[in-house]
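Give me structure tokens for this 451-residue protein.
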Amino acid sequence: MAKILVVDDEINIIKTLSSILQDEGHIVYPARSGEEALDFMRKNEIDLVVLDVWLPDTDGIEILEQVKKLSPDTSVIMISGHGSIDIAVKSTKLGAFDFIQKPPTMERVITAVSNALEQSRLRRENIKLKREFHIEDEMIGESRKINEIRKIIETAAATNARVLVTGESGTGKELVAKAIYHKSKRFDKPFIKVNCAAIPNELIESELFGHEKGAFTGAVTRRIGKFELANNGTIFLDEICDMSLAAQSKVLRVLQEQQFERVGGSETISVDVRVIAATNIDIKKAIEEGDFREDLYYRLNVIPIIVPPLSERKGDIPLLVNYFLTKFSEEHGLGAKEISEPVMETLMNHNWPGNVRELKNAIERLTIMVPRDFISESDIIKHLESARDAIGYSRDISTLKKARDEFERDYIIRIIKMNDKNITLASRALGIERTNLHRKIKNYNIDLDKI
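Here you go.
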């Protein structure tokens, strides 16, 4: 639901637009003149303005300029019964999102308003992202591998080169992508995240490139895709190995030509988008098995960044633990908590198959569940099922792949049992993606019917 101001001196146009927009669930406010519109905006917050070019007291183009000065983030759609290409171009240059000819059709209005509001939503999200950017958006740690990643991020951020971030689930691949974006020249432009694993294969092309009305069943209006919304900014393609081969082909073309067509459309759309991709899958193995295009891999892998699992930078665990203890104590309004050296040793000896995400969830749970101002080894045993086997695990064994795989398999089976074989709940408890858990179940030959 959005707050929309309709500015037009024709009462029939106001009634028509109000009826269409109210049926879509929006709140509509009318204004019959430019001055009335500006006065209303000085006193109220508005998400979108539908503005007539010709008004009785002033030129709509002048009102457009005033609206943008009053509220730069408010989208504006211009309408006119006597529009020309020159007026449309001038309106766009001054910040109008779209230009509609009178009499407006319901379909045209709904499409323009929907797209304008989506752009506004993304703009607000990016503003929020900038305000909330703090230490958590950086890689916490002082290990050699983390310091190397920091150097690569600085180098990559100064360019427009494509980046491929690889690493296990929960290691912080998205934090790397955000850090590159925040340090880049595109920081004031959109940052669009797409989780390829969360989008069905039949919808991924529409999500990325948009679609025209009637392109498929359910496509009742035109939709703007993520690449178009990310124009001049950055798009983060998370879990890119889960993308269909057909969609991979289209992404390859965008990378090569910076052009594409919407699904069901013939218009060629040009964009300038920086691409950062990430995956927790062995991408070279996916290429060998025919699940990922080799030519796309080489296009994406201009600057590779490999994020290590937590087991390979255990020296960073105390820094992460203390950071999360402070963070969650403040967030939940609890007193500061401390962890003794023996307990910290236990946490460092644990394998953390869910990596930093699992550690973060564990520390939040301990912060909430332990009433005292210190966390003991018994608290670890009581509240962290996954840490019970960590006590007594030697560092030498925990570094062996076989021992780690055996522990991870047993741990996954235990968590699945605890959640009554509900894979969605189990993946949340493990701190990994559902698709990643399915892969581990397959790799470890876990028979769900027999556990």
